[in-house]
Amino acid sequence: MALSFCLLAGARAAASPSLPSSAALLQRRHLPPAVVVGPLPQAQQRWRRGTRFCRASSSSSSPPPPPAPPEEPQDYELLDTTGNCDPLCSLDEVSSQYFEANYKPKDDLLKALTIFATALAGAAAINHSWVAANQDIAMVLVFAVGYAGIIFEESLAFNKSGVAILMAVCLWVVRSIGAPSTDVAVQELSHTTAEVSEIVFFLLGAMTIVEIVDAHQGFKLVTDNISTRSPKALLWVIGIVTFFLSAILDNLTSTIVMVSLLRKLVPPSEYRKLLGAVVVIAANAGGAWTPIGDVTTTMLWIHGQITTLNIMQGLFIPSAVSLAVPLALMSLTSEANGSSQESSSLLSSEQMAPRGQLVLAVGVGALVSVPVFKALTGLPPFMGMLLGLGILWILTDAIHYGETERQQLKVPQALSRIDTQGILFFLGILLSVGSLESAGILRQLANYLDATIPNGDLIASAIGVASAIIDNVPLVAATMGMYDLTSYPQDSDFWQLIAFCAGTGGSMLIIGSAAGVAFMGMEKVDFFWYTRKVSGFALAGYAAGIMSYLAAQNLHISLPTSLAEIPFIPGS
């Protein structure tokens, strides 16, 4: 009987979507692998909890004691008394409790009617001859509505990736109606898809490589060397480490890694928020001066507007200035002049996965060698990224062969953890902008800007300011469609300023970059707190960076490097 009850309880624990009542404050963490290594499947965790309870009850006739704490403490995190969960952990139970407490049928009905009305309006427009006669107006309206949905995604509770994909499809449908023929629209779509797929495959490979390194705790090698506890010194150390880390990785991944580190170095306080803001500014600045550090710089590099050596030489100094100025100003604040910080024991308790250093070396080597691969073979950069991913895939399969408990360290599991919806968002945005370019709308906008603002430096600076409010990916994509290489040749000051301004301008508001949004969610930072405490520093750094770039170009100052002597780098 006890055995039957045990099996039944274990099965219920594995199938139940919620945790036992005595462990209601424990949630399964879904942290980046930089924080947790070796998670067990949720069903297996629940089965163990159920069977542990059964073993206790079958060995005694007394009332069964409450379930014992989980045997894998590193896989769990205690929620606070309000039920709030770490933003990176599983929100299944917390979100369901919130849903039950705040469910409003009228809101769902209103959303359903809104979607239905929008679909009807779209269907009516598609079948209306007005679209064919007024294609440009129709496409601008569709783009404006779609982009409004992206900007106000939090208010509308619509994921921006879904909105972007829907907008892209609608724009190409309108384009097919207004084009001289369907064959012309299909040819334009094929050309746009070929260009967009290069960026998507590049991002897919890069994100997977970073995730694999993260799973092996590879970045622990970097974070373990941060030992200072002086608030002012720590401010500079965090900024400099993030700056160079973001140049190799992307700014979003660097932000997640560094903010996770801050949680172990500094207790919750205003000072920790300030350090998180430094991470955002440093990540955006560091990603601007290398072709693989930011998605917008990658877009410009893949499409030939910039080359590797020239972007690094031209933007390193402005990027460093855009970080150094905010750091110097923040060093004067009261938060940076407080008492020394005590570190948490969590940092020393984490262990690097087996062969973590090997995976780190191969992963970083794969990322850094992509420009070299492009220069040597002439193939697009995404092929070099896929080559690195293939090598790392075979390597992890080989070193973890037969280790069933380390399946999460392999590429298939990493693919399930990467930001797929972010990739789909880029896909939708780039396809949407491609439709506007095919219709000639972006060319008309470029002509208008040239007539109104004849100075390319002012246009680039304005785009950087706009990127603090509007996502920089569509801004850069639109700029690439507005100006071709005949207007501004490769590695011209205009394209380098676009790369710098679009990358660093997003730091002025917390919603202006993926790094800022990640920091906002992880640390529960308020929009107005960031605007009040950080935006002025970021604006000063942004302006100083632009001025340093213009001064360096006029004085012919660039980053000295011996790489120019290597024959295959200049053409990369």
From TrEMBL:
Topology of this chain in the membrane: Multi-pass membrane protein
Coarse class of the protein's main subcellular location: membrane
Biased composition (Pro residues): 62-71
MF annotations from Gene Ontology: antiporter activity
Source organism, top-level taxon: Eukaryota
GO biological process terms held by the UniProt record: sodium ion transport
InterPro entries referenced in this protein's UniProt entry, alphabetically: Cit_transptr-like_dom, NhaD-like
GO CC terms of this entry: membrane
Region named Disordered: 53-74
Subcellular location as annotated: Membrane
Keywords assigned: Antiport, Ion transport, Membrane, Sodium, Sodium transport, Transmembrane, Transmembrane helix, Transport
Residue ranges annotated for the Citrate transporter-like domain, each copy included: 147-480
TM stretches of this protein: 109-126, 133-152, 158-175, 196-213, 233-262, 274-292, 312-332, 358-376, 382-402, 423-446, 458-485, 497-522, 534-552
Pfam families listed in its UniProt record: CitMHS
PANTHER family from the UniProt entry: SODIUM/PROTON ANTIPORTER 1-RELATED (PTHR43269), SODIUM_PROTON ANTIPORTER 1-RELATED (PTHR43269:SF2)
Family: Belongs to the NhaD Na(+)/H(+) (TC 2.A.62) antiporter family.
Protein name, UniProt field: Citrate transporter-like domain-containing protein
Organism from which the protein derives: Urochloa decumbens
